[in-house]
Amino acid sequence: MTMTVRALHTEDRPGVEAFAHIRRITLPYLLFTPESVAYNIEIAHPDAHYQALVAEEDGVVIGTAQIGVVHDSAEPGQGYVNVYVHPEHTRRGAGALLVRTAERHLAASGATKSFAWVLDAPGNRAFAELHGYRSGRSAHFLRLDLANGKLPPLQDPPPGVEIRPASDYAVDPRPLFDLDAEASSDEPSDVDYEFTDYEAWLRETWQHPLFSPELTSVAVVDGRPAAFSAARIDGGTRYGTAMTGTARDFRGRGLAKLAKNDSLHRARAAGCTEALTGNDAGNGPMIAINNWFGYEICATEVRYVRELA
């Protein structure tokens, strides 16, 4: 048995497809396609030192990792590694080799910390702790059955408010960037981001192959985007909410709930049968909104961190 780890390149179609396949098996709560995996490699910022790694056993891909440096944070030296191994090929050393390779790359790229999301299962947590990681905050994956579940009926927005698809901003999406930047800056997180690069947002969000401007809904107040629910789709029947948020001046008015309800109805009308999302365990307001829609927790993950020598 020969185990090796290497970095993926966009032209490696078999490797990219294997990466997406393993992620769909190990993380069915997130959307992955070969196109999205290749795109993330292609558009990564040079300062992120991003790599998608695969572990191969005798030439067969059995494990994956995404690694990089959080270059758009005010605090330097923060890296991340997220490792997932095919469930039929665990305990063969693939995960350990991926972690060692990732940490060498991160340290060489200037990272002094390594953050990792780990599924909340005894074996996964023991693996992280064996490699020197300590646990922190947790987050939930949630699922809603769009095919058989009942959505709240669409409501007429209050006076002065209209609900529009993000595709209405195709010519100039800058107002949506401003809204996303403000809402995202208040998201609970271990890492603070400086959300100021419009061109990067265009590449990483607006032009991403999973992003759907047609299914993304925006609550507009007196002509200004005030709340939104950003949608991703995998080209099949699965729909994911990438972000739901409200500008600070408009919070407490139910606008995010209006936008998300509109997006969910759009998704169901477009043939989506499964809705997925995620919440930090401490984000009470968003958890309450998703409970109102009927989402149910389907898995939990824990954020681990390790100081790199």
UniProtKB/TrEMBL annotation:
Keywords of this entry: Acyltransferase, Transferase
Keyword Iron annotated: no
GO molecular function: acyltransferase activity, transferring groups other than amino-acyl groups
Transcription among keywords: no
InterPro entries membership: Acyl_CoA_acyltransferase, Bact_Acetyltransf, GNAT_dom
Pfam families associated with the record: Acetyltransf_1
SUPFAM superfamilies: Acyl-CoA N-acyltransferases (Nat)
Superkingdom, taxonomy of origin: Bacteria
Chain ranges of the N-acetyltransferase domain: 3-155, 161-309
Protein name: GNAT family N-acetyltransferase
Annotated organism of origin: Streptomyces sp. SID12501
